[in-house]
Amino acid sequence: MKSRDKVLFAFPLLLGLLAVISAGTLFFSAGKFEDSYVTSEKRNVMLEAETVADVIRPMLVAGKVDEAAAYCMRFPEKSLRATLVRADGVVIADSDADERELDNHATREEIKRALAGTPNVSSRFSATKNMRMIYCAMPIEIGGRPEFVLRLAIQNREVDAMIAGAKRNTVLALALGVFFSLAIALYIMRRVRIPLEQLQESAQRISRGDLNERISIPEKGLVRELAVTVSRMKELLKSQLDRITAERNGRERLFAALSEAVLLFSESGEAVYFNSAARRIFGIDPSASKFDLSRCGSPELISLADGAFREGRAIEAEITLENDGATRTLLAKGGVLSHDGARRLLLTITDLTNLRRLESFRSDFVANVSHEIKTPLTGILGAVDALESGALDDPALREKFLGILSKQAKRLNALVQDVLSLAAIEQQQVSGEKEMLPFRLDAAVENAVNFCQSRAEAAGTTLKITANDPAEIKGDSRLIEQAVINLIGNALKYSGSPTVEISLRKTDDAAEIAVRDFGVGIAPEHCARIFERFYSADKAHSRELGGTGLGLAIVKHIARLFGGNASVESAPGKGSIFRITLPL
Fold first, then answer.
1. Could you give the CA distance from residue 455 to residue 300 in angstroms, rounded to a whole number?
2. Are 375 and 543 a contacting pair, CB within 8 Å?
3. pLDDT digits (tens, 9 = 90+) for 346-373
């Protein structure tokens, strides 16, 4: 080896040796300084802990734990961290963290020594703060026993800064020692470093969720294969994430569209998922992201869920739910699912309230129709039997029983027609398929009055239109006319009034048709139910006059079909006013 080569070889070695010596000196000095600084800080934090303990000890003796905790929470010395720990290790206050998120401190060395009655100071690395800290634990005795521990902690910022400076100097010394070696490799490093930095920046953006980041791939070099691999991984990750997102959104849309409530409960009773139908059935606030089974309003459902978790069985039961003063009938189905050791209860809830109400209504309706049909049929059969038994040969009896046949047949026909009309109207309400054509409401009122004119003359009653404002609405003119005819017919048949007044008045957003009589009136207890099917204030009188009990029910359903309502205002001896209100 030539002398020049030896010198060139020895020079970087010498620089490296000097760098190592310098680094050792710096580390030694830093260690000495750290020992001196830590000893001083330990004394200071011990004095501070004694002072704070003297302040909060009377509070704790008096049982004012919250007051003592509040003092620690707003600890004035910002460079110190104050922690108040119970004898069982539970943190009840911390000036620098949420005590609910802190682990039990019973196993911390300084806490154990303090609970043994020994104030102590130590220095160790804090996992919570991710730095070295000086801890002072001061026992607070109540009744001769340590019931609480006050712990003060101070950060070794100065020591850390000194050590960091020593490390920087060490790095500098080492850098000087390898300067010439780095100079030789500089060209190669420049060619590698820039692509690596670009790749690193791209990888960081991808890690933050930016999967649209375009990765720059060098044309050649050592980094090319790495960049190609990262790019492929990014595209694969994006594809998988898009698929998962699409599947999740699809499930969300599916569950949101379901009329049944879908809920997924943990064993603690917390709903980890629920759809919009569940919000509606259980009255969950639209902004709420959590729901607990204990607040569902149904002890039966809570009991079913407990049994399902306990026995691991599927459940299916009809339950009741009290919510906002209303009672719902629900069908609950579900089963327990297990995944990665965790158990979940999947529930589907079907609201049967309307179905049960419809079944009850259908049963009542069939019973009422059967009862109402039985009366005219009995009359018809009785008249036929009488005629067959010889009344047919007696002119007077024949005339009597033929009159009964005619009357009861007409009554039966009217009942059938009203039942069919009501069924057709309800079908339109359910299906939403209704005629919505514009027509003149005042013309419909006039047509209804003209239709009833002959009946009014036969009854000796005067029909009088007191007001008929021009109004145009959308709907079915035939049904509106039928509703007005029913109201006029009701007044002619039952009121005994010499005059019936009909009026149509228009407001800004509605039209009101009123039929007023001056007859016997209706008692208040009957007004509330007068629009029910087959309801009559005087059933015997209604049957005698041939009433079906469905006329006013038809009026109510026609009004509701077109977004309106029907009402009555009456008092005994003061006549009645029946109103139909329709939106314009």
1. 59
2. yes
3. 888 888 877 777 666 666 666 666 666 7
